[in-house]
Structure formats: structure tokens, C-alpha cells
Specification:
single chain
Length: 130
């Protein structure tokens, strides 16, 4: 059972969304990699419209984009926690940051593989007509 004894409040739910939106704004304001991920996502979305990909392919692309953005947010949060805890060089903090960055790398590589699977056949077919 939850320890939260406060009754449900629509106002509190709306307020929690504003906190989440503020977090997303902070991510894009402070993290250059997040801007690169979004720019890449926009290019992929334009490509999806251009090549008229299927509903299933759109779902895979959406999951891949979300996967990368979520890992970038978690990575940024962990880095901020680590930086808050100490400004000194610490092997454990380095390990935490490296693992977190590795998660972003794996998600980005997964997204690239999905993008290649979806788009390479269409790009290949396009060049067959040229």
C-alpha cells in the first residue's frame, strides 16, 4: 500500500506534468547531445514520411527515438547527481558516468540498426531507378 495519504488531485497531476516538462526543457537547454538526438529524430521522421513507411515501421522508429531520449535523460540525471555529490575525481563516480553513457550509446546504436533495417531497402530501391 502506498504511503501517500493525500487524496487524488487533478491540480497536483497537472503540476507534476509541469515538472516533467521543465525537466525536458532543461535537458535540451543544457545537453548538446540531446539536441543532436532530436535533430536526428526529425531527419528520420521526414524520411519516414518521404518513404511512406508502414505503421509497424513507424512504431519501431517511435520506440527507437523514445529509447534514445529516455536514456539521454537518465544519463543526464545520473551525471548531475554525481556532480552534486563530488567535484573531485572519484573512480566510482567515473564508473557510474561511464556506465550511464554506455546506456546511451547502446540505445543510439539500437536506433541506428532499426533505422538501417527500415530505410536501406527503400534507399536501395530509390537508386535502382536513377
Amino acid at each position: 500500500m502506498s504511503k501517500n495519504t493525500k487524496p487524488f488531485s487533478v491540480r497536483a497531476r497537472i503540476r507534476s506534468f509541469s515538472f516533467a516538462i521543465q525537466g525536458i526543457k532543461t535537458l535540451f537547454r543544457e545537453e548538446d547531445n540531446a539536441k543532436v538526438h532530436v535533430l536526428t529524430a526529425v531527419i528520420v521522421i521526414i524520411g519516414g514520411f518521404y518513404f511512406d513507411i508502414s505503421h509497424v515501421e513507424w512504431m519501431l522508429i517511435a520506440i527507437a527515438i523514445g529509447f534514445v531520449l529516455v536514456t539521454e535523460i537518465v544519463n543526464t540525471a545520473l551525471e548531475n547527481i554525481c556532480d552534486y555529490l563530488t567535484e573531485e575525481t572519484d573512480p566510482l563516480i567515473k564508473r557510474i558516468k561511464d556506465l550511464s553513457a554506455g546506456a546511451v550509446l547502446i540505445s543510439a546504436l539500437t536506433a541506428i540498426v532499426i533505422g538501417l533495417i527500415v530505410f536501406i531497402p527503400r534507399i536501395y530501391a530509390l537508386f535502382q531507378y536513377i
